[in-house]
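Problem 3 from the worked examples.
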Amino acid sequence: MAKLNSMGLTEEELALLEDDYDEKEDFDDGISDEDKALMKEYYDRDVKTFKEGEIIKGTILRITKDSVLVDVGFKSEGEVNTSEFPDRGRDLNIGDEIEIYLEKTEDNEGQIVLSKDKANKIKIWDNIANAFENQALIEGIIVARAKGGLTVDIGLRAFLPGSQIDLRPVRNMDRLLGKKLEMRVIKMNKKRGNIVLSRRVILEEERVQAKVDTLANLQEGKVMEGIVKNITEYGVFIDLGGIDGLLHITDMSWGRVSHPSEMFAIGDKANVMILKYDKEKERVSLGLKQITEDPWNKADEKYSPGTSIRGKVVSITDYGAFLELEKGIEGLVHISEMSWSKNLKHPSRIVAIGDMVEAVVLSLDKEKRRISLGMKQTEANPWENIEEKYPVNTVVEGRVRNLTDFGAFIELEDGIDGLIHISDMSWTKKVKHPSEILKKREVVKAMVLSVERTEEKLSLGLKQLEEDPWEQATSKYTLGQDVDVTISKIATFGAFGELGDHIEGLIHVSQYGKAHRNKPEDAFKEGDAATCRVMNIDVEKRKIGLSIKAIEEGLTPEDFTDTEIEVSDGE
C-alpha cells in the first residue's frame, strides 16, 4: 500500500484499479508502466495470501436483515447469510472482526464466497481434535436418545454409549436429557463425522483418587457419610468415596426391616459406622443401628413381668403373633396365650398385621432378647369360678364344637368346653363313634358330671339326662320268662334281639331253633320277630342271654351251665 500511495492514488482510486485490473490490462489511462508493474505486484501478492478451504479473518462492513457484508482484504467483499450467525447476527456490530471460511476466491459472477457455518465447524473439529490429543475435558448437552446410548451436542453431534455414561449401567437414560455433562473424547473420525465420548473414564479417575483419600481415613468405629449405590434383598451398597461398603439388612435398624428398600433409595445420603475393614480384600462392613443405643439395654427396666403394654402386630405365624413394643424390641404372644378358648386354630382368627393390641409381659430373657406376652391375661379367666357357674348335676346347653374318636366337645361359652365321653352317650347302645349320636354344630343338653378347675376340665353326660333302663331290668325280666324280640343286629356268633326300652339280648348261634342249626347264617335278618326264653341276666355287665332252643325243648335255666348260655356280645 505504501508504494501505491507514493503514486498519489486515493484509496477509492486504488480499489477501482484493483477491481478492473484484469479487464483493463491494455487500457491506456496515463499511468506509467512502472506504476502499473507496482500495482500488479501488489495485487498478485494479495491474491496469493488467500487459499480456498482456509479460515481467514474479515471485518464486518454492513449488517442487514438477511446478510452480513464482510471485507477480508480481497478484491471484493463477501456476503454471508445472517442464519449462519448465532441469533441471526443480532449481536454483531459494524467493524467487528470475525473468522470466516473461504469457499471460493471467485464464483461465476466474480464474487468471493464465504461461509460462517463451515468456519465454525472447522474450528470445532480443531478444538475436538485438540481435546482428543490432550485428553482434555469437553462439555456437552444431552439432546436425544440414540440406539445404545445418547446423542450429545458439543458444537457437533457426538455419541455417548450407554456403557460410558456412568460407572454402573444407567437404567433410565431419559432423566439425563437436557443435562450438561463433562466428558472426554475417546474416538473420532473426521472423514466420517464420528465422535465418541465417555463420561465413565472421568468418573473412574475421580473414583481412583477418592479411593486413595477414603482408604487413608478408614477406621473401624468411625462414622462416615456415603451415597446409596445399589439395593439388594440382603442389604445396600454405599459409596464412601471410591470404595463401596455393605450395610447388611440386620445392621440397618434395631427394629424389623422386611426389605432394605423400606429405608433407602438409590442416591440417598446416609451416615454409617465402619464396623469392619479388611485392608487386604478392601471389604468394608457398615452399620446404621450401631450409631444409636441398643434398646435392649434398658428392656428389663421397661418390660418386667406383669407389665401391661400396648404393641403393634408386625408378624403372624402358626404358633403366635409378634408385637412391636418399640423400634428394636418385639415380643411373642403364643397362640395358647391369646385366648382362654382352646379352640383357636390360628392367630389370624384374632389379630391382623398392623393391629394395636393390649398384652401383659409374662417373661423376659435379656440375653436371648426374648419377651413372652399374653393377651388373654388382660381378661378374666372364665375357669376361676367354674364350680359356681357349672355345679355337678347341673343341666347345661351348648353347641357341639368337635367330634373325636373318644367323645364330643361341647362349647358352653367362649373359653369353656365340656367333654361328653363316648361311654356317657347311651345307656344301652354300644357307640363306636360319637357321630352315631351327635352332629357337629348341633345344640344339645347335657349334665355336668365333674369339674376340675386347676386342670381346666369339665365332664358332661348325655345319657344321664334319662333313667338307666337296666336298673329296672331284673324286675321287668325274670329267668325262664318267654319274651318277644325284634332282631336288631346280626353277627357271626349270633343275633341281637331288642326287648324294649333299648335293651338288647343275645341269641347265640347255639341257641337257635332246630330249623336253623345247620345254616345259622340264614336264620334271621334285621327286623325279624322271634320269641325267646330269658336264660341269663347280668345287670352289672348289662347283658341278657336268650334262647329259642330252650322253648322248643322245654328247658329251664337250671338245665344249662354258665358256659352253655352265652351272654357275650362277641367283642
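Problem 4, a separate protein:
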Amino acid sequence: MPQLKHSSTPEAGRQRKLSISSLFSVAALVVTLLLMHPTMAETAPSVATETAFFAAAPPIIGSHLYEIQLNPVELEPFSTWGGAIEPLGEYLLVATPRGRLALIDSEGKAEYFPQKVPMNESASEKPIRWIGFRVADILLHQLQPDLFTLFVSHHYFAGDCVEFRISSTSLHIDDTNITLSGEWKTEFVANPCIDSDIFNFAHRGGIQAGGRMLMDGPGHLLLVTGDQAFYEWYQEEHPLEPPPPVETDAHIGKLLRIELANGEVETVASGFRNPQGLARDKDGRLWQTEHGPQGGDELNHLKSGLNYGWPYVTHGIQYGNKKWPYNNVQGRHDEYEKPVYSWIPAIGISNLIISDSRYFPLWQDDLLVASLITRSLYRVRLNQGHVMYVEKIEIGARIRDITQMPDGRIALLTDDANILFLQRAPLYCQTESDVDSVYSIDAESVCIDLAKVIAAADDPVIRSLADADFDSPAIRSLFSIYLQGNRLTYVKSPCNRLEFEHRFFLHITPADARNLTEESEQLGFNVLDFNTGEENIAAAIHEDVCLVTRELPDYELKHIYTGQVVRVESPDGEVTWRGPVWDGSYTSKEQPDAASEGDDSPAPQLIADDPSPGAELFAARCGSCHNLDAEHNIGPHLEGLIGRRAGDIAGFKASAALTALDLLWTEENLAEYIANPDQFAPGTTMADMGITDEEAQQIAEFLAANK
C-alpha cells in the first residue's frame, strides 16, 4: 500500500523532491569532525502546508524498570495551551489548541489539513486571548475500514458568552490520501453558555472545561465536563453566600452519556471541578483524573450515580493559601465519594492511559498519568482498585495529552508544541545471556543481537569485532558508543539511511594538549553516508541496525563528546544547519598528569591555588577546551574575559551566533550562557555540558575573580 498522506483534494497528492544539502559549516569554537559531505535526494509527499522538523535528540531517561528513549517532533508553535492527540494507524492525529489539525507520520513529519475545527473566533471584534479558549479533546470512531468519525470537544465563541461543544466530521482513507470532509456537525452543546466574565476571571475560565471523551458502544459518547471556573468566580463575587446548586439540566461538572442518534443526554456521575483524563481499563472500569484547586489533584474510579464532591469538598485549598469556604474541615473529603488517590502538592494533572504496550510489558495494566506542573509521568500500580505505589518519571515538559500508538510507543503532546514518542531504549548485545541488567527483562523486542550484524558484514574490519564487548557503552543517547582498545564503535537502532537528515560528529580531546595537532582534530565520521574511503573506518547496516567503527589515535584520550548538527528547512525550501547539539560525553577515568614536565602553562597552577567550587568546576567541565592564559585551545582563551565583547578575540574565529549578540561579558550574562548556551545564543557551537544554574554561577564567579 502506498504511503498515506492527507489533503483536501486528490490533486494535492503530488510528490516533490526533498533535497538534503551537501554543504554545511560549524564554527571553530568546537571541532566538527566530518570526513565527507554527501548529497542525497528522496521523494516525500507534500501539500502546501507541510512542515518537517528534526528536533534535537534528548538523552535517554531512566525509570525503575526501563530506560526510555524519547523521539521528539516539533510542531508549529502554539499561541496558547491545550490541544489533543489520537492514533490513526501508524499516524498520530494532532489538534492544536486553536483547532488546526495535523497528521504526524512514522518519520516524524507533520502535515496540516486545510480544514480547522469550527470555533468561530473570527466573529469576535477583538482577537480572542483567553488561554482557556481551546480544543479539549479529539476522538476517532471507526465506522468502516476506511471511514471514521472525528469528534472534537472545544469552545465556540457565541458573542456575549462561550459555548462548549462537540463537533464531528468524517475522515476517509484511500490508497494515497487521508481526507476530511470539511462538513462539521454539532453533536452537543453544553448548558449553560458561559459568560465571558468568567473567562476573564483569573484566566481560569475555559481551562476548567474538562472535555475528555470515550465511546460507550457504537451509538453513545461519554463526555466528562468541568465547572468552567464558575464556583471560584462565584465565591469571589459572593464571598458570604453558599454556592448555588447545580441545576438538573446543567452540564457542568458531570460525566454525561450522549446518544448520538437523537442528542439525548444522561447524567452518569457528578461533582467534578476540572477533569482532565478519562480512560477505561480491560475490565470496563472508568478512571478519571481531575485538577483540584491549590493542591488535591485526584485519581477517581467513576461509578454511576455517585457525587464526587465538588464544590462542597476538596483535599485542596483556595488559591493564595486561603481556605476553601465550602469545606467543613479543610483538607478533608467527607460525605462524598472519595478519590482513589490525591496528589498534594498538586502536580497539574492531565490525561491518563492504561498501559498494555509491548514496549513496556512490566507496566501491564498500570495507569500512566501525565502532569503539567511537575513535567513528569506518574506510573500508578493498582491492586484490587487500590493504589500500591506511584512512580514519578521526569520527562521535562508540560504534558497536555498522552496516548498509546498501535505499535506500543507512547505519545505525549506538550505545551511547548512538541510531540514526544516514548519507547524502550535499545539494548545492544551479542547474545541474550550477555545482558543481565534489570533493563534486559522482557527485552526481546529491543535487544539487538550485534553478533548477527557483525557476522553478516562483508568488511573484515567489521568482522574483527566478533570478540568485542558490547555490554557497557561509554556513551549512550539515541545511539551507543563503545570503546574497545584503540577502536570506537557507533551503534544505532532503529536505523535507516533516509533517517539521517543530520550530521553526527565527534569532538575528541587528548589528555595531553600537545597531541592536539591539526591532523588529529579531523577525527570523526559522518553517518549520513558510510562510504568514507578510509581504511581505518568501516560500516554496516543490517536488520535496521547501523554500525560504524574506526580506529582511535594511539595517545591517551581525556574527553569524547558526541553530537549532531540539526537540519532545518525553511518554508521556501532553504536548508540550513543548527548546532552543534551535544548528545553525550565520555571522560577517561585514568588520565595522565596534564601538567607534565615541560608544560609551562600557568592555568593548572592557577586553578590549584584556588580552592573555590568554581575553580574545581572549571577544571572538570571547561578546562579541556579553554585555557586561562592568553593561548587558545579548542575554544578561545578566557584571559580578560569579563568586559570583553562576545565573539571579539584576536586569533580565534568565533561563531556568528556569539558575534551577533553585540554585548560585553559580565558575570551575570556569562553564567546564563554557561548554563544554557543554545538558548542564550541560538546557533552557538559551544557544547551544552549539562551544567546547572548554580554551577554556572560558580564558574562565572571564578572567571570574574581571575580576570
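Solution to problem 4. Residues 1-57, 518-532, 591-608 have pLDDT under 50 and may be disordered. The two ends are 66 Å apart (CA to CA).
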